[in-house]
Write a structure and sequence with these properties.
Helix content is 36%, strand content 27%. By secondary structure, the protein is of the alpha+beta class. The chain has one domain: Alpha-Beta Plaits, CATH 3.30.70. The protein has a four-stranded antiparallel sheet with strand order 2-3-1-4. A hairpin with a 6-residue loop joins strand 2 and strand 3. 7% of the residues are buried.
């Protein structure tokens, strides 16, 4: 399993539009084959900065999503709203000492 973290910085005048749009597509992405779940984090001090945290079966699963029609519809819509170039990391877990409910902020 791999984890994908993507940092997105939006223009101040577009963050609410992004959040509204995200709410319409979150389950499509979350339920994509090979995706084991996704979280959208919002920066506590800078609302226009968000990060997605998702877990995937494999790099191939993530690539299938990134090459999918779904991604091909989402990315062009939100790309003009960015304030900075997105940053992304694909990671594997060397150690995971968190309890599941901790990751979800409970």
């Amino acid at each position: 399993m791999i984890t994908r973290i993507v940092k997105l910085e939006f223009r101040e005048d577009k963050i609410e539009e992004f959040i509204s749009f995200f709410d319409t597509i979150k389950n499509v992405v979350n339920d994509f084959p090979g995706c084991n779940g996704m979280i959208l984090y919002n920066d506590l001090n800078k609302r226009s900065t968000v990060m997605t945290y998702s877990q995937w079966d494999s790099q191939d699963s993530l690539n299938a999503y990134r090459n999918s029609e779904v991604f091909g519809e989402i990315w062009p819509k939100i790309k003009p709203w960015f304030n900075k170039k997105p940053e992304a990391w694909t990671l594997y877990s060397h150690f995971d000492g968190f309890k599941t409910e901790h990751i979800h902020g409970h």
